């Protein structure tokens, strides 16, 4: 999700007469291609790692892989790849003279999707609360770096080369985030009620205490951008 002070400054420059070069679409597509390639390659490497029978003998690893769909990072990667695939397709149609195939509704959806794109740059004091050490058997440092950090430069790159008007209000975008938070929390709690398992150790430690909803609220608020505002 990128709605930041930088966003506002860039848009002010555009309104003040800053003209984007026609080549900006190619720079934008370069960034889209890079992030899609990184995530695709990284996903393939992790998928092959999970096919290693010697690794899958570990009970904790098997439990983790069975909860893949519960991890916020997995949702995150899915959102990122969906957005950048859509963006790349739209831009490719534009440069090949088939811009008429991209309707106004699709363009509007693209802008909304980008404004509510969730990204995570994670840094925790105690990694065992979120990323237990056994995960290293499947996810190397490079894989974790790609999953949790690379979205930041990719999103800023897209922001710099994708001109768009500053929205009058972020209520709609934040409303989408609230809905996503509710859906994710519901999925996690439903899985716990069915299997007695949480994807993150910190959920297990705090469930049943006042800290559980507080942690969920903090986790959601951490996805809000610096400089976001509501009119």
From TrEMBL:
Q: Which family does it belong to?
A: Belongs to the AIG1 family.
Superkingdom of the source species: Eukaryota
Which locations, inside or outside the cell, does it occupy? Endomembrane system
Q: Which reaction does it catalyse?
A: 12-hexadecanoyloxy-octadecanoate + H2O = 12-hydroxyoctadecanoate + hexadecanoate + H(+); 9-(9Z-hexadecenoyloxy)-octadecanoate + H2O = (9Z)-hexadecenoate + 9-hydroxy-octadecanoate + H(+); 13-(9Z-hexadecenoyloxy)-octadecanoate + H2O = 13-hydroxy-octadecanoate + (9Z)-hexadecenoate + H(+); 13-octadecanoyloxy-octadecanoate + H2O = 13-hydroxy-octadecanoate + octadecanoate + H(+)
Q: Does the keyword Transferase apply?
A: no
Q: Which UniProt keywords apply?
A: Membrane, Transmembrane, Transmembrane helix
Against PANTHER family, the record matches this protein to: ANDROGEN-INDUCED PROTEIN 1-RELATED (PTHR10989), AT02829P-RELATED (PTHR10989:SF16)
Q: What is its main location?
A: membrane
Q: What is the lineage of its organism?
A: Eukaryota, Metazoa, Ecdysozoa, Arthropoda, Hexapoda
Q: Which InterPro entries match?
A: ADTRP_AIG1
Q: Which GO terms describe its cellular component?
A: endomembrane system; membrane
Annotated membrane-spanning segments are 25-50, 108-125, 145-162, 174-192, 198-221
Entry annotated with the keyword Signal = no
Membrane topology recorded in Swiss-Prot or TrEMBL: Multi-pass membrane protein
Q: What is this protein called?
A: Uncharacterized protein
> What species is this protein from?
Spodoptera exigua (Beet armyworm)
């Amino acid at each position: 999700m990128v709605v930041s002070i930088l966003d506002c400054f860039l848009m002010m420059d555009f309104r003040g007469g800053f003209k984007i070069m026609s080549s900006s679409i190619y720079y934008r597509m370069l960034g889209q291609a890079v992030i899609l390639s990184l995530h695709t390659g990284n996903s393939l490497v992790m998928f092959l790692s999970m096919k290693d029978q010697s690794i899958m003998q570990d009970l904790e690893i098997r439990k983790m892989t069975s909860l893949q769909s519960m991890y916020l990072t997995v949702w995150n990667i899915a959102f990122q790849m969906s957005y950048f695939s859509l963006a790349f397709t739209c831009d490719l149609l534009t440069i090949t003279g088939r811009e008429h195939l991209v309707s106004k509704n699709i363009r509007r959806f693209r802008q909304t999707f980008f404004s509510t794109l969730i990204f995570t740059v994670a840094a925790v004091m105690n990694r065992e609360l979120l990323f237990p050490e056994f995960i290293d058997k499947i996810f190397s440092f490079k894989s974790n770096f790609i999953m949790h950090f690379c979205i930041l430069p990719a999103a800023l790159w897209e922001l710099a080369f994708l001109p768009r008007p500053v929205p009058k209000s972020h209520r709609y975008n934040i409303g989408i985030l609230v809905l996503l938070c509710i859906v994710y929390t519901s999925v996690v709690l439903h899985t716990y009620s069915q299997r007695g398992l949480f994807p993150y150790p910190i959920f297990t430690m705090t469930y049943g205490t006042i800290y559980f909803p507080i942690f969920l609220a903090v986790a959601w608020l951490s996805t809000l951008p610096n400089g976001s505002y509501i009119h």
